[in-house]
Design a protein that fits this description.
With 341 residues, the chain is of the alpha/beta class. Helices cover 28% and strands 25% of the residues. β8, α4 (158-169) and β9 form a beta-alpha-beta unit. α6 packs across α7. The longest helix is centred in the middle third of the chain and has 13 residues, at 129-141. The protein is globular and about 60 Å long.
Length: 341
């Protein structure tokens, strides 16, 4: 029995290409003391994976050449020599793009409770890193309050769609999304319940934000960076909070940037702009998961998952995030027998 893995062969410029990664086979890891062997069932495909492929400093080191692509995932414990895990547990952690992974003292996994009434893709989406990021970004970093006007970019995406719905559930006066194209804008309003959605591909975004939020934006949850961030900065309200969650428009950008021009509005409006990494909130994940599960179960939080089948298609799934072809949370199914049933 072998372990198929997707490894990094060369650092990409722009989108991931066929030469960027390779599928290789290696022996299945041996389970040592205080370790558990995990058969990977599903992978979480997140924009940050693309940044880890670059040879650049970040909150985690770059993926090494010939190393397995780093990513979150879920699987089933098939062998355990650790008191933390039992055989049959469904666990979530940094699996990487491979069929088998080891839970170790350095690479710990979280056991996913069964009996919640949610399937594994939903858990990976709303109760996984995506939903948790939206929760702490909106409520802790954004300090969202009852009556706030909230603006969310990447609103049709996995994180943005949850962030906006959390704001609605917590009493926002108005929630406006920004997305690409009329289909996705309609989805943001009709499926996710935003009050309005602006198409960033149409001209004069700055002016359209002003028309949608005439009293200014109290919380701006930014997933894209670049020109969209700049347009939002021009429309912040007094004491606004700008949450920097991602910069997906810049991850594959090889052109020269003109930079952000409207940061002076942070001074004028006495606003603050803050970045965050969800790993900073690890000890509080259960808090977010409890509230998010309740919102899903009572119908207040809508979600959808784009599932790509086959480990070898993980690079294509990653590219989908940057081409706008995905809807909701993108996942790769490695082994469909791994379920929460």
């Amino acid at each position: 029995m072998s372990n198929r893995q997707v490894v990094l062969k060369q650092r990409p410029s722009g989108l991931v290409k066929e030469t960027t990664t390779a599928v290789v086979s290696s022996p299945v890891p041996t389970c040592g003391p205080d370790e558990a062997l995990v058969r990977v069932g599903i992978l979480s495909i997140d924009p940050t994976i693309r940044t880890w492929m670059d040879d650049a400093p970040g909150y985690l080191p770059p993926i090494g050449i010939d190393d397995v692509i780093r990513s979150g995932g879920a699987g089933v414990v098939t062998e355990s020599r650790s008191s933390r895990y039992n055989v049959g547990d469904i666990v979530f952690g940094m699996t990487g793009w491979q069929e088998w992974s080891l839970a170790t003292e350095e690479n710990r996994y979280s056991v996913i409770p069964k009996g919640m009434g949610l399937d594994l893709p939903t858990v990976m989406n709303v109760l996984g890193i995506t939903g948790i990021t939206a929760y702490f970004g909106m409520l802790d970093v954004g300090e969202m309050r009852d009556g706030d006007v909230v603006l969310v970019s990447g609103a049709a995406g996995a994180t943005g769609s949850v962030a906006g719905q959390i704001a609605k559930a917590r009493g926002a006066k108005k929630v406006v999304g920004i997305a690409g194209g009329p289909e996705k804008c309609a989805e943001v309003v009709e499926l996710y319940g935003f009050d309005e959605c602006l198409d960033y591909k149409e001209p004069k975004l700055l002016q359209r934000i002003r028309a949608a939020c005439p009293e200014g934006v109290n919380v701006y949850f930014d997933n894209v960076g670049g020109d969209v961030l700049d347009a939002a900065l021009a429309n912040v309200a007094m004491n606004a909070r700008v949450v920097l969650c991602g910069a997906i428009s810049q991850y594959n950008d090889t052109s020269a940037s003109t930079g952000i021009k409207n940061t002076f509005m942070l001074i004028v409006r006495r606003a603050k702009m803050e970045g965050f990494i969800v790993l900073d909130y690890t000890s509080r994940y259960p808090e977010a998961q409890m509230e998010l599960a309740g919102l899903v179960l009572n119908g207040s939080l809508r979600h959808q998952e784009e599932i790509v089948t086959g480990l070898e298609h993980a690079p294509d799934a990653l590219n989908m995030l940057f081409s706008g072809k995905n809807h909701g949370k993108t996942l790769v199914m490695v082994d469909e027998t791994v379920t929460l049933d």
